Amino acid sequence: MESGMRLSGGQRALIRESWQRVSGSPVQHGLVLFTRLFDLDPDLLPLFQYNCKQFASPQECLSAPEFLDHIRKVMLVIDAAVSHLENLSCLEEYLCNLGKKHQAVGVKVESFSTVGESLLYMLEKCLGAAFSPEVQEAWSKLYNAVVKAMQRGWETLPEGD
Ligand code: HEM
Fold first, then answer.
1. DSSP state, 114?
2. Whose CA is nearest to atom 26 of ligand 1?
3. Which of 41, 63, 74, 148 is 20 to 30 A from 108, comparing alpha carbons?
4. Are strands 53-54 and 49-50 parallel, antiparallel or unpaired?
5. Which atom of ligand 1 is nearest to the CA of 69?
6. pLDDT at residue 4 greater than cutoff 70
């Protein structure tokens, strides 16, 4: 990933430390993140459809087993990023493909800013006073690097075009 995105040793330590407090219960924290996301942008709800069935409310979505699996998937991607802080570039291809998959299901790249806001909200709720401005900055940097890599999925044209 770009050198401008490089995290300092101190920032990496803050991320690892704070993630330890979240990663033990990924679904519980992921629910805080996605509850906030639907509060900020209810229009994202219809993008989650399983067996062509639309959810009638965020509450219905947030309790569906398929959606809880999506939460686990999101938390696993973040976990992978936290495990590869020294070498985020090895996730680049995976994240680009993940971006393509999200484009295919109708997600707009701009929505990832709202996801970022919701991620910071969840971290603040989980960490309380430990959510310092330094922790916030380190996480923003990491999240921006992940989104930048996913964003390439929107920029790449499908093969054959
Ligand atoms: C705007 C927010 C998002 C929306 C609307 C969204 C929507 C979706 C949908 C509809 C699917 C396919 C169905 C499913 O697997 O549940 C999916 C798959 C997935 N999403 Fe998301 N997603 C969002 C954010 C994220 C984020 C932030 C991450 C991780 C950083 C993520 C990681 C994944 C993964 C790993 C899959 C499975 C891809 C595969 O099948 O290989 N999603 N997402």
1. H
2. 74
3. 63
4. antiparallel
5. 16
6. no
